[in-house]
Amino acid sequence: MTAHDIASIRTMAGLATPMALRVAVTLGLPDRLRGDGVSTEQVATELNVSPVALELLLGHLATLGIVERASTGHRTTDYGASLCADADNGLVNFLHLDMAGGRAEMALVELLHSITTGGAAYPRRHGQDFWADLARFPHLRESFDQQMTHRFRDQVPQILAGYDWGRFPTVVDVGGGHGTLLAAILAAHPRMRGHLVDLEPTADGARGTFAAQRLADRAQVTAGSFFDPLPRGADAYLLCDILHDWDDDGAHRILGRCVEAVPPTGRVLVIEPVGGRRDSTGFDLAMLAIFGGRERRIDELDALAAAHGLTLDAVTDVSDQRCLLEFRLAATG
Description:
The protein is an alpha/beta fold and about 325 residues long. It has helices at about 5-15, 15-25, 30, 40-45, 50-65, 90-95, 100-105, 110-115, 120-125, 130-135, 140-155, 155-160, 180-190, 200-210, 250-260, 280-290, 300-305, and strands at about 65-70, 75, 170-175, 195-200, 220-225, 235-240, 265-270, 310-315, 325-330. Helix 4 (about 40-45) crosses helix 5 (about 50-65) and helix 10 (about 130-135) packs across helix 11 (about 140-155).
């Protein structure tokens, strides 16, 4: 092994840079240091932090190109402006230690626990599971909903174009968040009707989405859990980025509710990254540590569904990140 190899591994393994970025975003430094520059002492006083320690942090952020030294102190670079609150790129939520994304990522510090037990590390890190955290802290729920909406913003056109949604007169979007995907489907197919199920206050956000896009007359919203009975009789039940958030027991419970509700000729549609086909190894570990879930392979999803009398009809790559698996009741053709 060469010195370069050793240095490369140290760089990959080092925690200083990822934590410096997270602390900078949590403190709001990229926003505060916009403009001509501010002295370390002034910022330290405003934020009630150690000026000596803040100078060390700013020094490292300067080596990363996030800030630069100016005659009046430090200022945010054009590159660093991507970490500002109004950048609208999802990075603040991903890094901020008191938002859903950033808080969840810290579960990876306890990855050894997940590898040892096969379960989520989030409760070990934060004292309760991810979903209980969202229920307890409204600001985490709000930031999670924002994260999901942002994550799907670029994916929705691909998903919409990659599948024949118009064949279903009615669709129930199970755990559909703020309704971004369902709204796009309904807008593209004026004869379709949709029904979204999610917890409050997320469900209220979906109502706002449908009202803003003038779809309220074709889009019903029910506040509820996908572990409870679902609206019955729709032509399709959509699970988009749902099953990978749960271990096998949770996934079985969700699929069971879909099968209870779907009519004999209906379909259960699963959209998510698929192991070995549309997934990321790093994201896979994150799903394990945060939720105790994973990006399942097609055969694993098929086996989960088969336990509920579902047969896999087709697999479609609907975007560069996600597949759609279409299931029917085994007794139907």
